[in-house]
Write a structure and sequence with these properties.
The chain has 9 helices and no strands. The chain has about 190 residues and is mainly alpha-helical. It folds into 2 domains: about 100 residues, RNA polymerase sigma factor, region 2, helix turn helix motif (Rna Polymerase Sigma Factor, Chain: A); about 90 residues, Arc Repressor Mutant, subunit A. α2 packs across α4 and α4 crosses α7.
């Protein structure tokens, strides 16, 4: 779960208080980087995009209207920055749009099979699942980040979980010592934070 800053800190940062803005960066730097790493599949690219995200945040913080959680607003900026970065790269390299392979989560107990299962998801399903399960955002917050109806977010997360279950219960993808009866539920991915 991502913590929310004190509204006074946000207001101070909007007025140019560098210490207040630094506090916001400290609060969101790791969750934004973690989200972007999983979103892009490249930790180094995620660092660059995270830096761009915080530059944009600094420029736009005065436009934050307290209508949604600050974290939702920050992750919307991060997501849009990642999309812009990807579009720019595709234009420069003139390569087809290929879904990136997410980087390993680096959390204890997660296996290669889970990384492969997450990588097998379509980008729409993967980003919805990551926002809910990895960042711990609520469906309403994810709907705000992705600018989608809440029902669409719920549907995408449901389908992502179903696809992960199918992928992980395939006997060829099971780790040694596991049986087909062992399912994969939200608790495995939900334990990552």
């Amino acid at each position: 779960m991502v913590n929310e800053p004190d509204p006074a800190v946000i207001r101070a940062a909007a007025k140019g208080d560098t210490a207040a803005f630094s506090e916001l960066i400290r609060l969101y730097q790791e969750p934004v980087w973690r989200y972007l790493t999983r979103y892009t599949g490249d930790p180094h690219l995620a660092e660059d995009i995270a830096q761009d995200t915080f530059v944009k945040l600094h420029r736009r913080i005065g436009s934050y209207k307290f209508r949604s959680k600050f974290s939702t607003w920050v992750f919307s900026i991060a997501r849009n920055t990642a999309i812009d970065s990807h579009r720019s790269t595709v234009r420069r390299e003139r390569l087809p749009d290929v879904a990136p392979r997410p980087a390993p989560l680096g959390e204890p107990g997660l296996s290669v099979e889970i990384d492969e299962a997450i990588a097998s998801l379509s980008p729409k399903l993967r980003e919805s699942l990551l926002l809910v399960e990895v960042l711990g955002l609520r469906y309403r917050e994810v709907a705000d980040v992705l600018d989608l109806p809440i029902g669409t977010v719920k549907s995408r997360v449901f389908h992502a979980r179903s696809e992960l279950t199918t992928f992980l219960t395939d006997t060829d993808s099971l780790p040694k010592g596991h049986t087909e009866d062992e399912g994969f539920g939200p608790s495995v991915v939900g334990g990552v934070s």
